[in-house]
Design goal:
The chain is α+β, with helices and mostly antiparallel strands and about 170 residues long. Helix content is about 35%, strand content about 30%. The protein contains 6 helices and 7 strands, in the order H-E-H-E-H-E-E-E-H-E-H-E-H. The chain has a 7-stranded antiparallel sheet with strand order 1-6-7-2-5-4-3. The longest helix has 21 residues. It is globular and about 55 Å long.
């Protein structure tokens, strides 16, 4: 795939939820993209923006990967099953080779798996044209192997952000 096509795909990505606190608290080492096993009403709720990744994390259990503590409230309260848990664990869809790599890295002390953002690839209007590759319009989760930052590192991040903001003001 050439560079221009890759940039076009990034533009078509619609970010539905972001875990900004995780980007501040953790140093990201390696990112992964996974599909999520969801109910239909959960997909509707996510696409309308009713989702929170705050405090959620990813775990590996029995050679399967799960997203825990992600809050997806029901789309319509009346049409939701009675025993629906908005913070239920959701299975992530990955290749076996990726799962094996995650198993090894998740057992290293000090490393954790955190969700970064939830997004869709492509839009429905582009699907109607018929020339859209498979996998478009699906909800994807980007998560990362991360290492926790120390308080000193967080202060440095804040200083860099303030300097960039000040430089931006002066350039205007």
């Amino acid at each position: 795939m050439n560079g221009t096509r890759r940039r076009q795909e990034k533009k078509k990505m619609k970010i539905l939820a972001e875990n900004k606190k995780a980007l501040f608290d953790y140093q990201l080492l390696q990112t992964y993209e996974a599909g999520i096993s969801l109910f239909g009403f959960e997909v509707k709720a996510i696409k309308t923006g009713h989702v929170s990744l705050k405090g959620s994390y990813v775990v590996v259990k029995n050679n399967e990967v799960f997203l825990l503590n992600a809050l997806i409230p029901p789309y319509q309260q009346a049409n939701t099953p009675q025993k629906y848990d908005p913070q239920r664990s959701r299975k992530l869809l990955l290749k076996k080779s990726e799962i094996r790599a995650l198993i090894g890295k998740s057992h290293v002390k000090g490393l954790t798996l955190i969700p970064i953002k939830l997004y869709t690839k492509g839009y429905k209007s582009s699907q109607a044209q018929g020339n859209v590759p498979q996998g478009r319009g699906k909800i994807k989760l980007e998560f990362a192997i991360a290492k926790g930052k120390h308080q000193i590192d967080k202060r440095e991040t804040i200083k860099k952000r303030d300097l960039e903001r000040e430089m931006g003001r002066r350039l205007k």
